[in-house]
Amino acid sequence: MCAAYAHELPRYGLEVGLTNYAAAYCTGLLLARRVLKKLEMDAEYEGNVEATGEDYSVEPGESRRPFRALLDVGLLRTTTGNRIFGALKGALDGGLDIPHSDKRFAGFQKGEGKKDAALDPEIHRKYIFGGHVGTYMRTLMEDEPEKFQTHFSEYAKRNIDADGLEALYKKVHAAIRADPTAKKTEKAAPKAHKRYNLKKLTYDERKNKLIERLNALNSAAGADDDDDEDEDDEILVGGFTGAILSLNVGNQTANAAQRRPPPKPPAEKKDPNVSGVTAKVLASMKRKEAMKEAVAKLRERGKKIEGVSE
Q1: Domain boundaries, the chain
Q2: Which domain of life is it from (predicted)?
Q3: Which 3 state secondary structure label does DSSP give 97?
Q4: C-alpha 48: how far from its chain's center?
Q5: Which residue from 12, 125, 70, 41 is spatially nearest to 4, judged by alpha carbons?
Q6: 251-259 vs 203-247: helix crossing angle, rounded to 10
Q7: How far apart are CA 216 and CA 21, in angstroms?
Q8: N or C: the chain end with fewer CB closer than 10 Å?
Q9: Which residues of the chain have pLDDT under 50?
Q10: What fold, for 6-178?
């Protein structure tokens, strides 16, 4: 429904110390007032306007019941004085109805027995208005001034001292109650960077480009096949001429040898991983080897016939 964050507090006058107990109280107060403002219940349930440190629970109004919420601490360790309980106290003082106990608020002290345990409002109020931070500032200024300059440098830049913390937080509480609505922060537009990505091609453009590549590869492979076929024809003509001259001695045997076709190479299975152009080149090489073997066999047969005729 609503959310509140400590990084919104600079808008209300708190620019430093956004993670301490007092800032957690301001964040819880901001959340409570924002929810009630959205539900149009902020006028009826003002909550505890003056933070005294005492435990406070909102009372039901005349027209509408108070808005009830439940505290979910998750995996956080619920130690006494934890900042989550500072946010809880701020939400309670803001007018929300949250079931709780005061045993974990800052300032709760255990006595000798259960009846003696009680919350000290003065100590709790001190934490709500940043008194513990002011005490630490004074200690560092006296004992370790160099550490004070580094640890509280942001406070020093804004002229915030230990004595002015309570007045500062009172102004923040009043500003939150005056306007708890959320406002979007103005952010500069991201800088436009030049992109160097290639233009995406359409389907027709990709198809035409692929066809051009295939045509170029096929034309290059076709030229190689023509050169190989011319060389094979020269070898065959010379081989067959020599074979015919040598076979004239025995016409019957020569005619029988000429009628025999050259042996065909065994058919091989096509490799699916071989492209069409590569397959053509391999087939041309195989044809060339087969023709050379056929010419060699014919020459051997011619030599044998000449030896028989002599």
Answers
A1: 6-178, 224-309
A2: Eukaryota
A3: strand
A4: 45
A5: 12
A6: 170
A7: 77
A8: C
A9: 236-249, 254, 308-310
A10: Nucleotidyltransferase; domain 5 (3.30.420)
